[in-house]
Write a structure and sequence with these properties.
Layout: H1 2-31, E1 36-41, E2 45-47, E3 50-52, E4 55-62, E5 65-70, E6 76-79, E7 83-85, E8 96-102, E9 105-112, E10 118-120, E11 129-134, H2 147-154, H3 156-159, H4 167-173, H5 183-186, H6 190-199, E12 208-211, E13 214-217, H7 220-231
Antiparallel strand pairs: 1-4, 2-3, 4-5, 5-6, 7-10, 8-9, 8-11, 9-10, 12-13
Length: 235
């Protein structure tokens, strides 16, 4: 009888320890800050072997990987994280989604959230291009941006802080991005620059800005402000 009582006490003690460990582990896991971003993705893309339509998605880092939830139907998709990426590079500091594009297929490969390391979801061999969806959380569509502020939220990641370019961006996009301070760019009329910003070209999509993950083109007044700022960058 005494032996049974001792055994019972030992088992109860072990059970209490197990419960405490479980509670501490859960508290540690759920106490961590949640990494999440909402993004308007303008084209069909592949996520964890599933082809998803264009639309608004909330991307959340969980202990199981990366979760994407569609705003249109509430459907949740999950992908494994290959590894964390150190950084972020200067052009991703505001938050970005990087898609590997081959032919007409786009695969979500990297996710960069403000204040966090990058996340690698997919690695594509050579022979592909990159497309980037920029994310920004501090744009107020109701107020006009100064030319420099608009430039810093849209153009700086590829064209550099003074329009002199960025070698890392050249390497990433596998092309020499035009230097905005160059005579070739500065010789263009305001109308030509406005068309490039609003309509894009074969090498560059129209300039867009994000408000909490929702992409839209620059308002006309901000286009004019950017052009005026670009004029101050001439050599």
């Amino acid at each position: 009888m005494l032996q049974d009582t001792r055994t019972s006490r030992v088992m109860v003690g072990r059970l209490l320890v197990l419960i405490l460990v479980t509670i501490c582990a859960a508290g540690s896991a759920f106490g961590q800050g949640v990494e999440a971003v909402r993004a308007q993705i303008p084209y069909e893309f592949t996520f964890a072997s599933k082809v998803l339509p264009p639309g608004t998605y909330t991307l959340t880092v969980t202990k199981f990987g990366l979760q994407a939830q569609s705003a249109s139907n509430g459907e949740v998709y999950r992908a494994s994280i290959i590894t964390r990426l150190g950084g972020p590079p200067a052009m991703f500091q505001g938050g970005s989604l990087v898609f590997d594009k081959s032919g007409g297929t786009r695969i979500l490969a990297e996710v960069w959230m403000t204040g966090a390391d990058g996340i690698l979801l997919h690695s594509t061999p050579k022979g592909h291009a990159h497309e980037v969806v920029l994310l920004s959380e501090d744009f107020d569509a109701k107020s006009n941006l100064s030319g420099k502020a608009a430039y810093n939220q849209t153009c700086i990641r590829c064209h550099g802080p003074a329009g002199k370019g960025d070698k890392n961006a050249d390497k990433f996009f596998n092309t020499t991005i035009p230097r905005l301070n160059s005579a070739a760019v500065q010789s263009k009329s305001d109308a030509e620059l406005k068309e490039l910003i609003t309509q894009g070209s074969k090498a560059m999509p129209p300039v867009e800005i994000d408000e909490a993950g929702f992409r839209h083109r620059l308002p006309p007044q901000d286009v004019d402000a950017v052009i005026a700022y670009v004029r101050t960058l001439k050599q």
